[in-house]
Amino acid sequence: MIKGNLVIGQSGGPTRVINQSLVGISEEALKHEAIEKILGARFGIKGILKENFLDLRKFSRDTLELVAQTSGAALGSCRHKPTEEDCEKVFQVFAKHNVKYWFYIGGNDSAETADIINNIARKRNYELRIFHIPKTIDNDLVITDHCPGYPSAAKYVAMVFQGDDLDNRSLPGVKINIVMGRHAGWLTATAALGGAHLCYFPERPVSMTKIVKDIDEIYKKQGRCLVAVSEGVRNVDGKLMLESKIEEVDAHGNPQLSGSGDLGDFFTNYVKAHSYHEKLRVRADTLGYTQRSFPGVVSEVDAKEARLVGQAAVKYAMKGDIDGSIVLNRIGEYQIEVKLAKLSDIAKKTKILPDEFINRESNGVTKKFIEYISPLIGQLPLTTNLCH
Amino acid sequence: MIKGNLVIGQSGGPTRVINQSLVGISEEALKHEAIEKILGARFGIKGILKENFLDLRKFSRDTLELVAQTSGAALGSCRHKPTEEDCEKVFQVFAKHNVKYWFYIGGNDSAETADIINNIARKRNYELRIFHIPKTIDNDLVITDHCPGYPSAAKYVAMVFQGDDLDNRSLPGVKINIVMGRHAGWLTATAALGGAHLCYFPERPVSMTKIVKDIDEIYKKQGRCLVAVSEGVRNVDGKLMLESKIEEVDAHGNPQLSGSGDLGDFFTNYVKAHSYHEKLRVRADTLGYTQRSFPGVVSEVDAKEARLVGQAAVKYAMKGDIDGSIVLNRIGEYQIEVKLAKLSDIAKKTKILPDEFINRESNGVTKKFIEYISPLIGQLPLTTNLCH
Question: Which of B79, B287, B296 sits opposite A296 (nearest CB)?
Answer without folding.
Answer: B296
